């Protein structure tokens, strides 16, 4: 499996989660970790899984993330498995619907990505962090879940032969 983990991070918390995810995915294949600023369209070619993470800003994606996503060619992720995460405050059930991970998932689906898991949130205590205790461990478990999911994905249907 070839995986790409991409993150945007203002204070370093989302980066820590991204690195923990990448470390765990390495047991299933090759993994490249890039910040969104480093990402180019060609990095996404020939990749089996793209995991993307961002902090939630004002119940949405940070503007910098939206701008980068807007610049990608249409359908660049066609057929590529995707999963998204964010870092956010702990919120009420209602407000927890307005996360960067949900917005990211929608944006990556629009680029043709095939979402393999619900968007996930890892919690910070304050604006600049730190992450709550146990969140890095939870990120590792989530990565394990993603890699298991990918291994169980059915291959494309076998050709039908008429007799
Ligand atoms: C301008 C701004 C707006 C924010 N808005 C939200 C928000 O709407 N909901 C939320 O849960 N956290 C919000 N936060 C807190 C961020 O989620 C937190 O800073 C982030 O998880 C830290 O990740 P980072 O270290 O990778 O930047 C906001 C932070 C900033 C700087």
Compact description:
With 163 residues, this protein is an alpha/beta fold. It has helices at residues 13-25, 63-70, 100-110, 135-152; strands at 2-7, 30-35, 49-55, 81-88, 114-115, 120-123. It has a single domain (2-152), classed as Flavodoxin domain (Rossmann fold, 3-Layer(aba) Sandwich).
Structural class: alpha/beta
- pLDDT under 50 segments (min length 5)? 156-163
What's the number of helices?
4
Quick one: biggest sheet?
6 strands, parallel
Number of domains: 1
Shape-level CATH architecture: 3-Layer(aba) Sandwich
Walk me through the topology.
Elements: E1 2-7, H1 13-25, E2 30-35, E3 49-55, H2 63-70, E4 81-88, H3 100-110, E5 114-115, E6 120-123, H4 135-152
Parallel strand pairs: 1-2, 1-3, 3-4, 4-5, 4-6
Bound molecules: flavin mononucleotide.
Flavin mononucleotide (FMN) is lined by residues 9-14, 55-59, 87-89, 91, 124, 127, 129.
């Amino acid at each position: 499996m070839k995986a790409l983990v991409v993150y945007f991070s203002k204070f370093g918390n989302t980066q820590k989660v991204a690195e923990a995810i990448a470390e765990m995915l390495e047991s299933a294949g090759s993994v490249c970790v890039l910040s969104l600023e480093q990402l180019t369209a060609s990095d996404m070619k020939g990749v089996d899984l793209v995991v993307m993470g961002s902090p939630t800003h004002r119940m949405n994606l940070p503007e910098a993330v939206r701008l980068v996503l807007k610049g990608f060619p249409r359908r660049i992720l066609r057929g590529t498995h995707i999963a998204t995460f964010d870092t956010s405050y702990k919120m009420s059930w209602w407000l927890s619907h307005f996360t960067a991970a949900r917005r990211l998932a929608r944006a990556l689906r629009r680029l043709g990505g095939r979402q393999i898991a619900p968007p996930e949130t890892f919690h910070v205590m304050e604006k600049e962090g730190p992450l709550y205790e146990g969140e890095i461990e939870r990120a590792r478990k989530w990565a394990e879940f993603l890699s298991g999911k990918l291994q169980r994905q059915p291959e494309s249907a076998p050709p039908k032969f008429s007799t």
